[in-house]
Amino acid sequence: MKGSVIILCGGGPAPGMNTVVCSVAKTFLANDYRVIGLHGGYSGLFSKTPRIEDIDFFKADAYFNRGGSYLQMSRFKPTNEDFEKNFNLELFTQNDIKLLVTVGGDDTASTANRIAKFLEAKKYPIANIHVPKTIDNDLPLPNNTPTFGFNSAKDEGAHIARTAYEDARTSGNWLLISAMGRSAGHLALGIGESTHCPMTIIPEMFNKTQIGIDKIIKLTISAIIKRKLLGIDYGTVVVAEGVFHDLDPEEIKATGANLTYDEHGHPELGKISKAVMFNDILEKEFKKIGIKIKTRPIEIGYDVRCQDPIAFDLTYCTELAMGVYELFEKGETGCMVFVDHNGDAKPLYLHDLQNEEGKIPPRRVNIEGGTAQNYYNHICHYITEADYEAAKKYLANPEDYDFKKILEW
Questions:
Q1: Is residue 120 helix, strand or coil?
Q2: 136 annotated active-site
Q3: 3-class secondary structure, 168
Q4: Catalytic residue among 106, 107, 136, 402
Q5: What is the β-pairing status of strands 345-349 and 97-104?
Q6: What is the CATH number of the domain that holds 400?
Q7: For labeling, which of 3, 182, 263, 361 is most exposed (least CB within 10 Å)?
Q8: 330 and 292 in one domain?
Q9: In order along the chain (409 residues), what is the average pLDDT of each group of 10 residues?
Q10: Residue 209 to residue 206: CA distance in whole angstroms
Q11: Structural contact between residues 365 and 71, judged by C-beta atoms closer than 8 angstroms
Q12: What is the C-alpha to C-alpha distance for residues 281 and 98, in angstroms, rounded to an integer?
């Protein structure tokens, strides 16, 4: 054999994890390499007893089209001390490893960047290529190219939201949907647009004003009242979880939401349903302004991460995996694999993508672009100046619920 390649998966799962790993395995096996799977993400690289196993053709063939991740994942982030004292170089030398393939999102990519710098500084002859994954679609790929897993998650998220919308129509009520996306609103916007949701709230909307609970609530009520004026007493609202993570913690505390707090007194938002919290806050506001609306919360997150990948991601992940081999054969390292619309693999060097802190910054929704602007201009429902007089039936101050005034657009 020509040597070995080792693969690890970091962060949280996304549809296509197995497709990437198993397609990498098939491609390298066909070219006379041994393929090793490393369990536990980056923790395995800094352990004296890493859990590894060979991935042969039969294992790869059995798992390449399944959801989840055969290789156990981890959010482990090595410290500087880990790099200096705990990096398991013997794992590489004893197994004749020529290439480390990392699969993950922005955090995993940032650590891959550190790994690349470390290997270069130590002059270890080990190539390092990263495969961009995340259902959040927030890695900075060129030409708005998606990260793998995003389209499969959006497809399933839209299925859930579409069913919820039908429930709202049938029952004559409103369903509040929180979608994953801590740093960016791609998934929420994709779900909202594809299901003709009358209001989708994402962090990027607040590009001209500071985000606040009051504005989130008013945007929601704006959609509800506008639909009332149109004779429509039902609908859905999709909110990206990142909206809540961007709020001032003190503002969240002031709502009286049922939260736990860390040792610094900050709300532990990762432990609660954003949809439930949003629903609770909204119901209190309804009582204040005296309107009767029935709402129910729905969380879209963990239920879309381990589904089977759709055909788009099965194809895309296979191309990414083959791209890893193509880049490796050309001697590339310290890069993220990018596959263009022609299926050609190109390197995106991690040091070119990093910010001043050495991290890979997230790609956010282009709120000025056609996708966002056309959706908000043509599909969403909200109060405008022309609605003020009619809206006084429900609101004492309808101008405060004017969509464009709230956002200062």
A1: helix
A2: yes
A3: helix
A4: 136
A5: unpaired
A6: 3.40.50.460
A7: 263
A8: no
A9: 94 95 98 97 93 98 97 92 92 94 87 87 91 93 94 97 97 96 93 98 96 95 97 97 84 72 62 86 92 94 93 98 98 94 93 85 94 97 98 96 97
A10: 5
A11: no
A12: 54
